[in-house]
Amino acid sequence: MPDWKSFVRDHIQLNELLPARQLEIIEDVAQQLEDVYQEALRNGLTESQAEATAEQHIPDWQWFSNEVSRSQPRSRASQNLIEHSHSEKAGLRAMLYELMRDLIYGARMLRKNPRFTIIVVLTIALGISATTAIFSVVNAVILKPLPYDHPEQILWVWGKFSQGDRAAISPPDFLDYRARAKSFEKFAAMHVMHQFVPAPMTLNTSAGPVKIDSALVTAGFFEVFGARPHAGRTFVAADEQQDTSAVILSYSAWQEHFVGDPQIIGKSIVINQSGYTVVGVMQKGFGYPLDVDLWSPLVFASPDMQQRKFHFLRPIVRVREGMSIETAQAELQTIASQLEKQYPESNRTWRTRLETLQEQMVGNLRRPLFVIFAAVSFLLLIACVNVANLLLARAASRQKEIAIRVALGAGRFRVMMQLLAEGLLISIPSGLLGLLLAHWSLEAFRTAGPDFLPRLQEVSVDRTTLLFTLLSSVVTGILFSIAPAIDIMPHLTSERLKEGKYSGTRTAGGRLRQMLAVCEIALSLILLAGAGLLLKSFWNLTHVDLGFQPENLLTMRTSLDEKRYPTPESVVRFVEAAMQKLGSLPGVDSVAAGSGIPLIPAGGDRFFTIEGRPAPAQDADKPNAQFRAVTKDYFKTLSVPVMRGRSFGDQDHETSAKVVIVNEPFVKKFFTGGDAIGKRIDIDVGTPFLAEIVGIVKGTRQNLVNPPDPEMYVLHKQAPMGYFLVAVRSPGASVSAQTVRSALQELDKEVAFQRFRTMNEVKAQAAIRNRLNATLLAGAAAIALLLAAVGIYGVLSFSVEQRHQEIGVRLALGAQRLDILALILRYGIRLAAIGLVMGITGALLLTRLMQTLLFEVSPNDPLILAAVSFLLALVAIVACLVPALRATRIDPLLTLRYE
Amino acid sequence: MITKEMKKGSAELLILSLLSARPRHGYEIGKLIELRSKGKLQFRIASLYPMLCRLEDRGMIAGRWVEKPGERRRRYYRLTGKGRRLLQEQRATWKEFIAALTQIVGMENA
Question: How far apart are CA A765 and CA A378, in angstroms?
Answer without folding.
Answer: 29
